[in-house]
UniProtKB/TrEMBL annotation:
Keywords: FAD, Flavoprotein, Oxidoreductase
GO biological process: fatty acid beta-oxidation using acyl-CoA dehydrogenase
Cofactor(s) for this UniProt protein: FAD
Record domain Acyl-CoA dehydrogenase/oxidase C-terminal: where: 236-383
Enzyme nomenclature, EC number: 1.3.8.7
Family note: Belongs to the acyl-CoA dehydrogenase family.
Pfam family name, one: Acyl-CoA_dh_M
Protein name: Acyl-CoA dehydrogenase
CC per GO annotation: cytoplasm
Organism: Novosphingobium sediminicola
EC supergroup of this enzyme: oxidoreductase
Domain of life: Bacteria
Length: 394
C-alpha cells in the first residue's frame, strides 16, 4: 500500500518532470560523450528546488522515505533520463547519500552529505578496478587498491575504472583494501574532497549510456593522503558497508529505469495508434498490439518485484538475495520492454527524434552495472547449493 505522503510527493515529481524537464531533453548542453553538462544539471536543479521536488526521497528533517515510498517517487523521476538529475535522485549520488547517511558520523555528514542533499554537489564512488590488473569488479574481494596508515593520515594507491561521475564531482567515496594488521585484510572507505591532484583521471571512454554527467572514468590514485577522521565507519568494514549501499542502489536503478520504460511504452503506444499500415492503425495488427500488451505485463511484473524487494529492505534486512533477484528480473524485463518499443516504432525508434532510443541504450547498460545478470544468478545458485547442503547435512 502506497502511503498518502509518497503519493503526493510522486505526483508533484511526475508533474514537474513532464512539464518542466522533458522539454530539456533537446537541450544541446552536452559533453562530447553526450552526457549533460553540469551547467544544465544545476539549472534543472534550481527549478526542482523552486518547485519543492529536489531530493524528494529525503525529508526536511533528514529522514528517508521508506524503500516502498521511495519506489513511487523514483519511478516518477525516471520518466525522463534527465528527471533523476534534476530531482537529485540519480546514481551515484542517491546511493552515496544513502551510504553516508547510514554510516558517517555527524561531522562527516555536515561536511559531505549536506551539499549532496542540497543538490549543490555531485559525487563519485571509487570501487571498480581494471580487469587487466586483476582488480575488483563484480567481486569486490579482488580489490587491489591499498590503504595504509601514516601518522594521522591514510595513504591510498591504486587504479579505478568506470567511476561514474568522477569528472566534475566534489565528493568522493574511495574504497581500498587495508594493509593494516588490525583490519584483518578488510577494506576501508574514505570520504574525500574532489578534485584532488592525487586522483588523476586518465581516460573517459565513450559508452552506450549517456545519462550520467562525467560519464565513467578511468582513474589513477597516487599517494592520496586522507586525514584519519575522514575514514567512513570503521577500518576493515568496507565490504560490509558496500552491501549497505549496493542492495538499495540496485533497486533504485530498477525504480528509475522503470519510469523510463513507462515513458517509452507511452510513446510507442501513441505511435502505434496514430501510424497507419496496410489499411489500419498499427495497434490493430497483432504483431504490434501483442508486443505492447506484453510490455504492459512486464511493466506490472517489474513494479511488483520492486515493491516486494523494497518491502524486504524496509524490514531492516540487507536484502542482498532479494536485490539480486530484483536486479535480474527487472533489468531483463525492462530490456524486453525497451526493445519492443523500438521495434514497434520501426525506423523512428532508432532515431533521436524520440527518447525511446536513449532509454533502450540506458537500459542495456543497466543490465551490466551494479552487477551483470549472470553474476547475480551465480550468487543465487550458490544460495541454492548452500541450502541444499544444509538440508542434507552436507
Amino acid at each position: 500500500m502506497v502511503t498518502q505522503r509518497a503519493s503526493d510527493i510522486a505526483a508533484r515529481v511526475e508533474d514537474f518532470v513532464r512539464t518542466r524537464i522533458i522539454p530539456y531533453e533537446a537541450d544541446p548542453r552536452r559533453d562530447h560523450h553526450g552526457a549533460p553538462l553540469d551547467e544544465l544539471v544545476y539549472e534543472m536543479r534550481d527549478l526542482a528546488r523552486a518547485a519543492g521536488v529536489l531530493t524528494p526521497h529525503i525529508l526536511p528533517d533528514g529522514t528517508h522515505l521508506t524503500q516502498r515510498e521511495t519506489a513511487v517517487v523514483l519511478i516518477a523521476s525516471g520518466l525522463s533520463p534527465l528527471g533523476p538529475l534534476a530531482c537529485n535522485t540519480m546514481a551515484p549520488d542517491e546511493g552515496n547519500m544513502y551510504l553516508i547517511g547510514h554510516v558517517a558520523n555527524d561531522d562527516l555528514k555536515a561536511r559531505f552529505l549536506t551539499p549532496l542533499v542540497e543538490g549543490r554537489a555531485r559525487s563519485a564512488f571509487f570501487m571498480t578496478e581494471p580487469a587487466e590488473l586483476g582488480g575488483a569488479g563484480s567481486d569486490p574481494s579482488m580489490m587491489i587498491t591499498t590503504c595504509r596508515r601514516d601518522g594521522n593520515h591514510w595513504v591510498i594507491n591504486g587504479k579505478k575504472r568506470f567511476i561514474t561521475g568522477a569528472q566534475g564531482a566534489s565528493v568522493g567515496i574511495v574504497m581500498a583494501k587495508s594493509e593494516e594488521e588490525d583490519s584483518k585484510g578488510g577494506a576501508c572507505m574514505f570520504l574525500v574532497d574532489l578534485p584532488d591532484p592525487a586522483i588523476r583521471i586518465d581516460d573517459v571512454p565513450n559508452t552506450i549510456d549517456t545519462s550520467m554527467p562525467g560519464s565513467h572514468a578511468d582513474v589513477t590514485i597516487d599517494n592520496l593522503r586522507v586525514p584519519a577522521d575522514q575514514l567512513l565507519g570503521h577500518a576493515g568494514d568496507g565490504f560490509k558497508y558496500a552491501q549497505v549501499r549496493l542492495s538499495p542502489a540496485r533497486l533504485s536503478h530498477c525504480m528509475r529505469w522503470l519510469g523510463g520504460c513507462i515513458r517509452a511504452q507511452e510513446i510507442a503506444g501513441d505511435y502505434a495508434n496514430r501510424r497507419m499500415g496496410f489499411g489500419k492503425p498499427l495497434i490493430d495488427h497483432e504483431g504490434v498490439g501483442f508486443m505492447l500488451a506484453e510490455n504492459m505485463i512486464d511493466l506490472k511484473q517489474a513494479e511488483l518485484m520492486i515493491d516486494w524487494c523494497a518491502g524486504v529492505l524496509d524490514t531492516g534486512s540487507l536484502g542482498t538475495v532479494e536485490s539480486s533477484m530484483a536486479k535480474v528480473a527487472v533489468s531483463e524485463a525492462l530490456m524486453r520492454i525497451a526493445d519492443r518499443c523500438v521495434q514497434v516504432m520501426g525506423g523512428t525508434g532508432v532515431t533521436d527524434r524520440t527518447i525511446v532510443e536513449q532509454i533502450f541504450r540506458e537500459v542495456r547498460a543497466f543490465r551490466i552495472y551494479d552487477g551483470p545478470t549472470e553474476v547475480h544468478k551465480w550468487s543465487l545458485a550458490k544460495k541454492i547449493k548452500r541450502e541444499w547442503k544444509h538440508a542434507h547435512g552436507g
